[in-house]
Amino acid sequence: MAKIIRKAKPKPAKSAAKKAVKAIKPRPVNKPAKKAPEPKPWTAAEVYEAFSRFRKANPEPKGELEHLNPYTLLVAVVLSAQATDAGVNKATRVLFAVADTPEKMLELGEEKVRDYIKTIGLYRNKAKNVIALSEKLLREFGGEVPRTRAEIESLPGAGRKTANVVLNMAFGEHTMAVDTHVFRVGNRTGLAPGKTPLEVELGLEKVIPAEFMLHAHHWLILHGRYTCLARSPRCEVCLINDLCRWPEKTV
Q1: What is the fold, at CATH topology level, of the domain defined by 44-61+176-237?
Q2: Which of 85, 92, 50, 63 is CA-nearest to residue 177?
């Protein structure tokens, strides 16, 4: 008797509609990570406490740029852009011994100024600015450093930070010069967060009590330079570590 071979029944094909549904089934989307909550702003009492501690530790803070008068301070600050105070001081000690007024600087001339400051970054352009600002001081301001921000900013090589430093250190104005250290401290601590130096400057001026403003930018610069370092901040010796809002602080 012949053996009957039965064919396996074919599996029913999926309908076109089911295939289409499967094809358009959305893939799971990864949910964006939750943002860390914004730190609470400092209270007025906390700001007062922080600057009281700075004042107690260093009642008369001094800027570290060496100078002899408002003019040499202006020149030193212009030279300090993208350079260290120590490097500027090394060059200006010799320069200011022979040229501590706009007249003497012009007599020296751009080429010799370059020779004095050649150890400072961007020295060629800075020498040009020193000569140009000296000429403008003599031509428009009687050889004296002007006492308004706008006038100082009009000088070659001088920006808002330069003007704030000169107004504060030479004329006792309550200005806030924001350099890289102040910018870091303002943001890291949460004292005056901002995306630009101007935002941080205005934020600090808004929260710091007037009685501290004369020395405030020096306290913050020194704090950023020696304690609240860019890398490996020294939180363990920080005067304000209990007030600081930085989530990564090590104490």
Answers
A1: Endonuclease Iii, domain 2 (1.10.1670)
A2: 63
Architecture label for domain 70-171 = Orthogonal Bundle (1.10)
Judged on CB neighbours under 10 Å (0-12, 13-18, 19+), 88 is buried
In the chain, ranges of CATH 1.10.340.30 domains: 70-171
Cα–Cα distance between 88 and 72 in angstroms, integer?
12
User: Among residues 129, 63, 66, 64, which one has the least CA distance to residue 102?
Assistant: 129
The distance from CA 58 to its chain's CA centroid, rounded to whole angstroms, is 22
**Would you say the pTM of this structure is higher than 0.70?**
yes
Per-residue pLDDT tens for 183-230?
999 999 999 999 999 999 999 999 999 999 999 999 999 999 999 999
Domain with CATH 1.10.1670.10 in the chain: 44-61+176-237
Number of H helices, E strands in the chain: 12, 0
Residue 43, helix vs strand vs coil: coil
CA atoms of 20 and 16, how far apart (whole Å): 6
Which residues carry out catalysis? 161, 179
